[in-house]
Amino acid sequence: MAEQSKNVQEQDINQLLKVRREKLADLQANGKDPFQIVKFDVTHHSQEIKDAFEELEGKSVTIAGRMMSKRVMGKASFCNVQDLQGNIQSYVARDSIGQEFYQDFKKMDIGDIVGITGEVFKTKTGEISIHASAVTLLSKSLQVLPEKFHGLTNTDLRYRQRYVDLIMNPEVKDTFIKRSKIISSIRKYLDGQGFMEVETPMLVANAGGAAARPFETHFNALDEDFKLRISLELYLKRLIVGGMERVYEIGRVFRNEGLDTRHNPEFTLMELYQAFTDYKGMMDLTENLYRHVAQEVLGTTTITYNGVEMDLGKPFERITMLDAVKKYAGVDFNEIHTLEEARAAAKEHHVEFEERHQKGDILSLFFEEFAEEHLIQPTFVMDHPIEISPLTKKKPEDPEYTERFEFFMNGWEMANAYSELNDPIDQRERFKAQEALLAQGDEEANTTDEDFLNALEIGMPPTGGIGFGIDRMVMLLTDSAAIRDVLCFPTMKTVKE
Predict the structure, then answer these.
(1) pLDDT digit string (tens) for 92-107?
(2) Is residue 406 annotated as involved in ligand binding?
(3) Is 55 annotated as belonging to a binding site?
(4) 161 neighbors 146 (Cβ within 8 angstroms)
(5) Helix, strand or coil for residue 204?
(6) Whose CA is closest to 215, among 440, 496, 443?
C-alpha cells in the first residue's frame, strides 16, 4: 500500500514538473522569457518596510524574492514573497496591474522569483503589505518546493540541498547570517588590536603544525606529491621571524579523519601569533575576543547551548591538566614518576593506551577520559605534557610540561595555544621524536620541516600563538547541534545514481 501511494505521489510530482515546463515554453513563445531579464532594481527589503512603516505608508517601493504562497480570489489575489530579511504580503488586483499582467500572475507558481512594485499599506487585519502596481516574473522555478521541508526526518537531504533548506527554514538562514557576523566581528576585534590578516599556502610539501593525517595529492606540473594543509602554524611563524609582529589567518584546513557532530574533514581555523608575549597573553586575548564577539553578535555575554547557560562575562577558570585529572579522575600524576606507574594507573582505571605512549601521553588520555566532559563553563586547561606538545616551550621550572593551554566550553576543545618554541635546537629534537613516532605507525605525527628550522635559526622572538575552531564557536553562539548545521555545504558521501 505504501509503495502504491509513493508511486501515485511521484506521478503527481512528474505531472506538476511537466506543467511548469509547459508554462515556461508558453512564456518564451510569447516573448516573455523570464530568463532574458538581466537586472531588476530593488529599493527595499521586507523587514525594512515593516520597520519603517510609518515613514513608508502610501509610498511606492520595489521588492524582489521568492513567491512562497498565493491565494487567487477572482479579480484580486494575495501572495507572500520571501527575501533576504523575511516575508511580506502583497495584494495583487486586476484593476491595479492590468488584465494581461493579472492573467500572467495567476499562472505563476510557488517558488517563482518575482519582483513587485507598489504602495505600502496595512490590511484590515493589520498586516503590513504592498498594493501591487506591477508584478514581474524574474525567474521560473521548474522544481516543486517541499510543502513541509522542516518536517523531513531526512536531515541528509537538508545538508545535500542546502539551497532548499535555506528557502524553507528561516532559522537556517539566520544561522549563516550570524556566522558571517561572527567572523566579521573577530576580524574587527583583531584589526583593532593591531593584528594583520595574511594568507598562507593551502597546498604544501610538509603538512605540519598539528597532530592529524593529511590529504595527499599529486602536482602534475612539478611532478611532485603535495599535501593539503592541516594547520596554519608553520607559515605564520615564518612571518613572525620576518618581523610581522602580529598576524592572523582565517582559512580552511583539511584533515583526513572521520565525520561526526563536531568534525568535518575541511573546516575553518583561525590562528594568530603575537611577538613578545606568551600563553598567558593568549588567555587574556581569548577572554576578550569571546566577550567582544558574543556582545556584538548576540547582544549578551551569557549564551545558552542545548539548554545549558554559559557565562562569558565572568573571568574564565584556569586549571592545570594535572589538577584537572586529580579533580575529576582522583589520580595525582605528581605521585606518578615512571612510565610503568603510569601504565599501571591506566590499567587500574580502564584507560586504553598504546605501546608507544609515554607518561605524558597517558596523562592526556586520563584528561580526555575523565575531565573534558565536566568543562562546561569557559575554562583554560594549562601546562600540557611535553610528549603531546612538540611545538611548545617547556616550563622553565618543570621541563616535563609546557606553556600550553586548551580552551574548553561545553566539554569541547575550542582553542589551543602555546608559548611558541623558538629554540631551533630543541625544535629539531622534537621533530626527531615525532619522526620516531611516525616510524612506529603514528600517522598523525609531524615530520621535520627543514625550512621552518632554518627560519628559527634566523631567529624568532618570544611569541604567543593560538588556534581557534571557528565552526565550533559558531555552533555554540547559534545553539546548533552539529557542525554540519553551521557549514553551508558540509562534506557528504557521493550519492550514486
Answers:
(1) 999 999 999 999 999 9
(2) yes
(3) no
(4) no
(5) strand
(6) 443
Distances (CA, A) of 355 to 279, 440, 444: 31, 10, 16
| Closest to 417 (Cα-Cα) out of 296, 298, 283 | 283
List the one residue out of 465, 490, 472, 497 whose CA is nearest residue 241: 465
Domains and CATH numbers, the chain: 2-139 (2.40.50.140), 168-316+377-486 (3.30.930.10)
Contact 140, 112 (CB under 8 A): yes
pTM equals 0.92
Q: What is the mean pLDDT of residues 255-260?
A: 91
More confident residue, 456 or 145: 456
Q: Which amino acid is at 412?
A: W
Q: Which residue pairs from 52-59 have beta carbons closer than 8 angstroms and sit at least 24 positions apart in sequence?
A: 53/120, 53/122, 53/128, 56/120, 57/120, 57/121, 57/122, 58/119, 58/120, 58/121, 59/119, 59/120
Number of Cβ within 10 Å of residue 25's Cβ equals 11
CA dist 343 and 355 (Å) reads: 10
Amino acid making up residue 27: L
